[in-house]
Specification:
Layout lengths: L2 H25 L4 H17 L2 H9 L2 H27 L2 H8 L2 H13 L5 H19 L6 H23 L6 H23 L10 H25 L5 H8 L2 H13 L7 H20 L22
Length: 307
């Protein structure tokens, strides 16, 4: 097996693990706010155990540190809305909504990064409109709030992905992730203490603790570390195409593990097909020069968004 083929298998394994995040969000009984707070806290603590992270933190300018912390607030809001969509609807709906992130990115990235808007990318947005309509029509009425929250989550995902791309190569990936998740944890802590009081973050039970550790370590840190090792061997197009499969993996897992196909009708899956068809065209319109590291591509999907 060639190094490139091995890297592709490893990348798809990462995407499969990321696909489990929506499933775990449904299985964990905590509220979305509690789930996100614990996930961010666990990952932050794990990263702060690395000496490399501390060395880079000591040398990072305060202005850059503040910028990454601000992006961390967006990350927290994205994860909060994503898991709220899972709780309000189901894992399939939330994963489908996240597939819209590249569509939002096509509009938001030129504004944030300062590049010219490519009119061809507008075609992606036009193409997904009927898909979104089919998805909304294919879910029960009591899940439609979850669809709306999921779309908001996709917009937030694209926003912080664009800001991360703007600040690419200004800090080590592990350190940047630690700053963003740490800032997100503090933001959620302050907001929750102000609104609900300290009792909101009670210690989870054994079942939820085990699933939180799987979510934070197996589905966040492990694929992140593996992805960093393979990204430089693959083109940006290959990486984008693979990461766009995350909603597919999540929906298939939701059908197999949660039986969610019984909650949704054929119109929902027709809408999913339309949305994913448009999303898979996106990499063709946003090819990066060969040899350019594609790390920024990881800024456009749920669990690897900040990584």
């Amino acid at each position: 097996m060639t190094p490139q083929a091995k890297a592709q298998w490893q990348l798809h394994f990462c995407v499969l693990l990321w696909g489990f995040t929506a499933i775990l969000g449904k299985l964990i009984t905590l509220t979305a706010l509690q789930l996100v707070w614990w996930r961010m806290l666990i990952v932050t603590i794990a990263l702060l155990l690395l000496p490399k992270v501390w060395r880079e933190l000591r040398t990072m300018p305060s202005r850059r540190l503040a910028a990454y912390a601000g992006i961390g607030v967006l990350v927290a809001l994205h994860w909060l809305t994503f898991y709220s969509a899972v709780k309000l609807a189901n894992a399939s709906v939330a994963a489908t909504c996240i597939a819209l992130a590249p569509v939002f990115l096509a509009v938001i990235e030129p504004l944030v990064v300062g590049r010219r808007f490519d009119p061809r990318e507008l075609l992606i947005g036009v193409a997904v409109v009927p898909g979104v309509a089919l998805v909304v029509g294919g879910v029960p009425a009591d899940m439609r709030l979850g669809v709306a929250v999921g779309v908001l989550s996709a917009a937030l995902c694209a926003t912080f992905g664009a800001f991360n791309k703007r600040m690419a190569d200004q800090g080590g990936a592990l350190t940047v992730t630690g700053i963003e998740l740490g800032a997100g944890t503090m933001f959620l802590t302050l907001v929750t203490l102000f609104w609900h009081g300290e009792g909101t973050f009670a210690i989870p039970g054994l079942h939820d603790t085990a699933l939180l550790l799987v979510l934070a370590i197996v589905c966040t840190l492990l694929p992140f570390a593996l992805a960093l090792a393979v990204l430089r061997k693959l083109s940006a197009y290959t990486v984008q195409l693979a990461t766009n499969l995350e909603p597919v993996y999540a929906i298939v897992l939701a059908v197999i593990l949660l039986g969610e196909q019984h909650q949704l009708d054929a119109w929902f899956y027709a809408g999913v097909a339309v949305i994913l068809g448009a999303v898979f065209v996106h990499p063709l319109l946003t090819l990066q020069p060969a040899g350019k590291p594609p790390e920024a591509v990881l800024g456009t999907a749920e669990s690897k968004a900040i990584e």
